């Protein structure tokens, strides 16, 4: 049953050598890896305007220079990451770059920061997309948590089906979104150029008394949230078709270009149309309404925006499992993240991401907006560390014209560092949590690593001297009566060794006598030892007896406890039989150095 | 940790021979077994008045003849059950009496009906007691489910501690309740006799136009809910100190007497004071207020009434586990209900009752009033069957003066049968559920019984001919590398037999070559067989290999699969290691007739 449902949802299992077919073409890669970055235009301009409008309507002209700064930052990031792609063709996420150039702890900080961030991405994007839906259909408002969790569930299933299918599914809405925003910008500019929709807007350079540097920095850092997701391409190089690094670099440039054009267009139109943020309608919605009126095109843009926000969450689904795999390979996360599932994706990473983000959405009742600054900081810390790592990389390897490359990354590092500091200063009340959970996450990585190293130490053998040594065998068979299951176990025990004892734990003299008589009558050729239990516990006297046997013979003999166990025909029938054998087994396994064997006895009716 | 908490809550484990000290004296037995019956006076009169008042204030005089009828019924029940106690000194619950005289299915119907009823008792009483508390402190109203569940939890813990301690704990409030109701009745009668509190009440015999027979029957059956719990004493005879049956009979008579006096007193005072049911104040509360005013005595009576309602639930805690034990002994319920816990109570029955009633309270959001008629029917069905069983008993055994005894039980049977029918007719909308779940419960009993008989059949051996037969041994050791854990397992396997194969499941050629080289270098004297898995599954190729071995050798050899398993020092470290061995073990155990042994390898750091 379970396996049928699984087959239906996930698809047939795939062979390991089908892995190559799962690689991404540029067109699909752009869709899968850039929906996070591209979806930012849905709220980037708005974030800037919200801060500025606090200083009055006149202040909105500042959105143009701030947007220019954000665009500059985008260019710097794209160029920096382009360098990283060629320097680290095996996947140059912040983790790898920081680890190999700045040392392991810095790498862990960068990677851990990103891992946490991907979980936040899914939670925030799913909630934001749900908000878009519930704004259109207010009656759904009470079910927003359910909608967001359902979306997360769907994304998890799609990703468990495999990378390629996920890409095919996702490409269509992503390109529809890009196309519709382009149409909106062209139509909007045309309308403005032909004299329509001129609003009374503050001139560029108009003096505004209460605009402080702090306010401008805050607006700038808010606008920078439009840049989260830019790193996705450089993390995912191994997912590209060959030649992977060239394809990745082209995809990255393309993404930067599209993002830049859309962001510029939206910000310009917003200024020209004199649009201010409104609780009830987003900036993009206002532009679309001014351009097209509330017609079909308007509703189409609103709908596709909601979809793209859901798909932004999907970026994390391709990035998180890959990063978790790298951590697991380096022994900083459980090995389970290295296992490929039936469809060759890292299923455990995908499921872990889905579960944690769904919990986050539930815990915040779908109001995850307060997590956005935290999420932005979680991106800019690894941005900075990655650039710093690249600087060290160029300085150490000194390839041709390394000074230019060094300069690009230096500018990138200083810019992202500045933005990180601006975030921490202007939004400390939202980001202080990072200072608690990042150390915790680092500590967990450290403990896991420590455990794996310790285990390897204890398991290592010297092939030359450590050879199997053969000892005798004593088999202890706990019996509860004279039944076919006991016959089965005794037969098995006698096949292994002559050294077999049956042990019976009795609670009162009457049953003990009865058992002794039965045993004598049966006479299976094995001694029966009777233990008396005054506390109705089978385990305690049994363990005491095994202790004695161990003390007497363990140096010469292996001790095996052989437990007869019923296997009922239907699983639910198991509640009808006592599960003492399970208790005995788990106790002995955990406490003692003896082998526990369960001899199944299958009931056929 | 867990065992310390358990020790603290439940107390130290007790030896089996301490069981005798757990027997109940009459004084304690009265408290433990009659709180259900006695607490009925808190609502019995009120139930009658609620029905009557629907026909107008004048109709309330009918409460007197109806109360008389209820008292008559009480006397009949007490006399009938007194006969049962002496006829069945080993505990003469409806189950035993009906089973041994009317056949097994009737016994199961009576007993099953009671088992379900005890769960309802706990749920209904806990909710009613909570209502009393929240009436006094309205601010607690939103937490009523939490309060009721906490009460159930406390009762469960008290009962897990053992019968005697539970009795000592319970005796005080029960006797305080009885004493305070007696004081109330005496003071009330005195006040009325000395001319106080005369209300303008309808005369006895006053004509009321719209009183129908249906209404009177409904009022009567409502009043009969005051009699639930009367059977508790006869079920629990084995819990009494010797001479058990005499002590039980005396306790039963005493309980009948106290209940009769209290019920009469409350009903009379209610009539004299002209009290009608009120949503905000119970009948007892109104009587107490009229008699004492809203002073200390009034609040004391209210408080102790709430406590007695909680303790009514406790009756079920002594009756349910005992009845479940009998069912389990007769193989109609899982054996688990026969196990005595650390404190000699039937822990599983106690816990089962607690969990199910807590679920019921939660499912009904604490509004379990609608379950009361269902609960009453669940009592009167076994009442009737038990009386019928006693009739057959006397007729078959024909002791001295059996005709008298037969007559008593015949009257009892006819009365309870009539009441059951009245219940079904007047309150069908509340009791129809019984016609669904009783057949379901009966079916479950039947299936469980069938399974146990089948199992016994399959397990039975003929001591003369079924002797252990000795075969050879083949041991298969799945290995994942060359480690100390593998060394350990191979040593063990070679100690058992020379017929050992190591099996390695590889996913790609590179790792397979590496493994083969390592094995050759180590050379432990055991052949390594390499299986290739194209689907990254270890289980599938392994099972296929074992099938082959089985096919080749199973008739001559026992096959053992020996799984090396890490035991980490701390339980949480287990997530860091793959649990493949668990999967392999549970699959092989359930699907195959081969022995699976786990060789523990304890990590020490």
TrEMBL record, chains A, B:
<feature type="transmembrane region" description="Helical">
    <location>
        <begin position="172"/>
        <end position="193"/>
    </location>
</feature>
<keyword id="KW-0472">Membrane</keyword>
<feature type="transmembrane region" description="Helical">
    <location>
        <begin position="213"/>
        <end position="233"/>
    </location>
</feature>
<feature type="transmembrane region" description="Helical">
    <location>
        <begin position="372"/>
        <end position="394"/>
    </location>
</feature>
<feature type="transmembrane region" description="Helical">
    <location>
        <begin position="406"/>
        <end position="425"/>
    </location>
</feature>
<dbReference type="Pfam" id="PF13520">
    <property type="entry name" value="AA_permease_2"/>
</dbReference>
<protein>
    <submittedName>
        <fullName>APC family permease</fullName>
    </submittedName>
</protein>
<dbReference type="InterPro" id="IPR053153">
    <property type="entry name" value="APC_K+_Transporter"/>
</dbReference>
<dbReference type="GO" id="GO:0016020">
    <property type="term" value="C:membrane"/>
</dbReference>
<feature type="transmembrane region" description="Helical">
    <location>
        <begin position="349"/>
        <end position="366"/>
    </location>
</feature>
<feature type="transmembrane region" description="Helical">
    <location>
        <begin position="431"/>
        <end position="448"/>
    </location>
</feature>
<feature type="transmembrane region" description="Helical">
    <location>
        <begin position="140"/>
        <end position="160"/>
    </location>
</feature>
<feature type="transmembrane region" description="Helical">
    <location>
        <begin position="295"/>
        <end position="328"/>
    </location>
</feature>
<keyword id="KW-1133">Transmembrane helix</keyword>
<dbReference type="InterPro" id="IPR002293">
    <property type="entry name" value="AA/rel_permease1"/>
</dbReference>
<dbReference type="GO" id="GO:0022857">
    <property type="term" value="F:transmembrane transporter activity"/>
</dbReference>
<feature type="transmembrane region" description="Helical">
    <location>
        <begin position="48"/>
        <end position="81"/>
    </location>
</feature>
<keyword id="KW-0812">Transmembrane</keyword>
<feature type="transmembrane region" description="Helical">
    <location>
        <begin position="254"/>
        <end position="275"/>
    </location>
</feature>
<feature type="transmembrane region" description="Helical">
    <location>
        <begin position="102"/>
        <end position="128"/>
    </location>
</feature>
């Amino acid at each position: 049953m379970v396996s049928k449902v699984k087959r239906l949802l996930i698809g047939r299992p795939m062979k390991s050598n089908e892995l190559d077919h799962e690689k991404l073409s540029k067109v699909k890669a752009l869709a899968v890896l850039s929906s996070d970055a591209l979806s930012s235009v849905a709220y980037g301009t708005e974030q800037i305007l919200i801060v500025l409008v606090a200083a009055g309507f006149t202040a909105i002209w500042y959105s143009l220079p701030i947007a220019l700064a954000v665009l500059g930052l985008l260019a710097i990031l794209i160029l920096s990451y382009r360098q990283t792609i060629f320097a680290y063709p095996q996947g140059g996420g912040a983790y790898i770059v920081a680890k190999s150039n700045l040392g392991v702890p810095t790498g862990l900080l960068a990677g851990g920061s990103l891992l946490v961030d991907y979980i936040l991405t899914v939670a925030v994007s799913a909630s934001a997309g749900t908000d878009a839906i519930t704004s259109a259909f207010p009656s759904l408002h009470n079910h927003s948590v359910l909608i967001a969790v359902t979306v997360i569930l769907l994304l998890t299933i799609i990703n468990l089906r495999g990378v390629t299918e996920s890409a095919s599914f996702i490409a269509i809405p992503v390109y529809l979104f890009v196309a519709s925003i382009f149409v909106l910008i062209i139509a909007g500019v045309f309308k403005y150029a032909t004299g329509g929709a001129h609003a009374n807007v503050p001139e560029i350079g108009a003096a505004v008394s209460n605009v402080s540097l702090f306010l401008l920095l805050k607006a700038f850092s808010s606008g920078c949230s439009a840049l989260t997701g830019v790193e996705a391409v450089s993390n995912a190089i191994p997912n590209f078709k060959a030649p992977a690094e060239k394809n990745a670099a082209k995809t990255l440039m393309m993404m930067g270009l599209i993002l830049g054009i859309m962001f510029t267009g939206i910000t310009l139109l917003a200024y020209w149309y004199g649009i201010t943020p409104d609780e009830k309608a987003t900036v993009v919605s206002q532009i679309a309404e001014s351009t097209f009126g509330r017609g079909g095109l308007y509703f189409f843009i609103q709908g596709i925006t909601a979809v793209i926000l859901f798909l932004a969450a999907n970026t994390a689904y391709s990035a998180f499992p890959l990063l978790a795999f790298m951590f697991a390979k380096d022994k900083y996360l459980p090995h389970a993240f290295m296992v490929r599932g039936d469809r060759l994706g890292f299923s455990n990473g995908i499921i872990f991401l889905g579960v944690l983000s769904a919990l986050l959405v539930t815990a915040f009742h779908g109001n995850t907006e307060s997590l956005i600054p935290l999420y932005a900081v979680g991106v800019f810390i690894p941005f900075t560390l990655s650039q710093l790592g690249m600087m060290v990389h160029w300085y150490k390897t000194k390839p041709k014209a390394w000074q230019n490359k060094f300069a690009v990354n230096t500018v990138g590092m200083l810019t992202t560092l500045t933005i990180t500091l601006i975030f921490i200063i202007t939004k400390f009340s939202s980001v202080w949590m990072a200072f608690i959970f990042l150390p915790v996450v680092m500590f967990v990585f450290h403990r896991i690593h420590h455990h794996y190293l310790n285990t390897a130490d204890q398991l290592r053998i010297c092939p030359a001297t450590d050879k199997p040594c053969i000892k005798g065998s004593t088999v202890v068979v706990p019996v509860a009566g004279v039944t076919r299951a006991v016959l089965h176990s005794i037969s098995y025990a006698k096949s292994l060794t002559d050294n077999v004892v049956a042990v019976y734990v009795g609670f009162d003299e009457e049953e003990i006598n009865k058992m002794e008589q039965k045993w004598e009558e049966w006479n299976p050729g094995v001694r029966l030892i009777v233990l008396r239990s005054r506390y109705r516990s089978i385990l305690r006297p049994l363990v005491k007896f095994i202790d004695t046997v161990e003390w007497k013979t363990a140096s010469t003999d292996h001790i095996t406890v052989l437990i007869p166990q019923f296997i009922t025909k239907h699983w639910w029938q198991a509640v009808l039989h006592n599960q003492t054998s399970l208790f005995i087994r788990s106790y002995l396994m955990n406490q003692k150095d003896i082998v526990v064997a369960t001899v199944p006895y299958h009931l056929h009716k």
